[in-house]
Amino acid sequence: MATHDYVIANASGAAVRADLNNALAAIVTNNSNAVEPATTYPFQWWADTTAGQLKLRNAANDDWVIIQELDGTMLMEDGTAAAPGLAFADDLDTGFFRPAANQLGVATNGVERVEFGTSEVVFNDGGEDIDFRIEGDTESNLFFVDAGNDSVSIGGDVTIDSDGRLLIGLSSATTNASMVAVGDSGSATGGAKLWMCRGESAPDMDTNDLLGRIYFSDADQREYARIEGRTNQVPGENDYPAILLFSTTSDGAASPTERFRTDERGQFVALSDGTPSVDHMFATVGGSSSSTKVMSFRRSATAGSLGSGTEVCVIRRNGDIDNTNNSYGGLSDVKLKENIVDASSQWEDFKNLQIRNFNFKAETGHDTHTQIGLIAQEVELVCPGLVKEVADIDHEENDLGTTTKHVKTSVLYMKAVKALQEAIERIEALEASNAALEARLAALEGGAA
User: Fold this and answer.
1) Average pLDDT of the chain, as a whole number
2) Buried b (16+ CB within 10 A) or exposed e, 213-237
3) Residue 368 DSSP SS3
4) Residue 223 to residue 255: CA distance in whole angstroms
5) C-alpha Rg value of the chain to the nearest Å
């Protein structure tokens, strides 16, 4: 180890030779020593054996610049984003710097772009309009951060915008929905699709296995309502029976209760308290017979067997309604009514109504057996108020430009009651008159005797 002032003094030959050898030793060892050279020069090397560092004197000759550890570890100045400690000769504001202890920063154009810390990696910490993207094998925007719009997209098809909305198939939306999905265009199957998938295949599943569930909750993830899909039988190859269940939470309750379900047969069941062992409504669609039941109300069904139990009311495919006690009614409490007066005579109206036999035309879809009843147009000539006219529409709610007349049979029944009361009054008057006449005849017969 040696240092030298690099000044060869005038001396005898042997002394000059020794001084030269000392200077050369300092040069070849980079002035290696435990203390810095007594005489320093700009850009002079010093191998600091105490610190274990190779240093270079700065241009002002007033400090040392650390170059690297003597064991070969590279060192650099901390630097800043504007002047990185490790930069490029032709781009001095682009490179690496040390923002703080245990941090590494990457700067371009004098601005920090990435900061690596002990607990996080931050991109664009300065808040600049700088995008970030990751390319895939064939997708240039496999992951893309749009800094200017504060949004993130994946694969070019899924975007999370600045309002936290998930947008599928579009990059922006005006709706206030939390998730918006847009499908393909130009085909009948191009609508948006949402898949809820169970993590196993049909052969490994059993009946009542959960396929997927959608929760409706508040910010604390308290469950208010849910929709779930379950297997309804054991699945098999090309055999996937399922059921959808809809549940809501009652006032005063803390968890949802099933309210209604629909199964693989198209049957619909509404439950009174979430269990099949109590009253429920049961509905189905199908069956070729006109008497097929399409809806029924049941009481005290067998536990675990929806659609069983005592039927109290049935609606059939042909429109017939059956119930257990043949009782029908309407609101009639006096507290609900006003302007109460006696109805006018219905005698003439009822006398002029024509009761007909008829059958429906086959093309109407109604049963074609012979029935007894009224013809709306004929009723309209006698009692216009008994007939209402309804616009005909197709299955898509399009107005067909025609109308169909209906008879208000419930009003007709009340008119019949009034007409019957009038008939009773006339019958009773005739009975009284007949009794008086019979008494007079009896008196005359007695006098003649």
Assistant:
1) 87
2) eeeeeeeeeeeeebebbbbbeebee
3) coil
4) 6
5) 49
**Two tokens, residue 248:** 């809501």
Listed in sequence order, the residues at least 6 apart from 135 whose beta carbon sits closer than 8 Å to its beta carbon are 141, 142
**What type of residue is 376?**
A
In this prediction, residue 287 carries a pLDDT of 62
Tokens of 199: 């993590």
Half-sphere exposure of 85 (CA within 13 A, CB side): 17
Report CA dihedral (92, 94, 100, 103) to the nearest 10 degrees. -140
What region does 209 belong to: left with phi over 0, alpha with psi -120 to 50, or beta? beta
What is the Cα–Cα distance from 318 to 408, expressed in whole angstroms? 19
Overall pTM > 0.70:
no
CA 150 to chain centre: 23
How confident is the model over 134-148, as pLDDT tens digits?
899 888 889 888 888
Each as own residue / partner, the long-range contacts of residues 205-212 (CB below 8 Å, 24 or more positions apart, any chain) are 205/231, 205/234, 205/235, 206/231, 206/234, 207/231, 207/232, 207/233, 207/234, 208/232, 211/242
Please give the domain boundaries of the chain with CATH numbers for all domains: 1-75 (no CATH), 132-181 (no CATH), 202-323 (no CATH), 330-449 (1.10.10)
Alpha-carbon torsion (22, 24, 29, 30), positive or negative: positive
- Specify whether the CB–CB gap between 350 and 344 falls below 8 A: no
- Residues contacting residue 174 through CB under 8 Å, at least 6 positions apart: none
Contact 133, 147 (CB under 8 A): no
How many helices (H) and strands (E) are present in the chain, helices listed first? 4, 27
For residues 395-417, give the mean pLDDT: 90
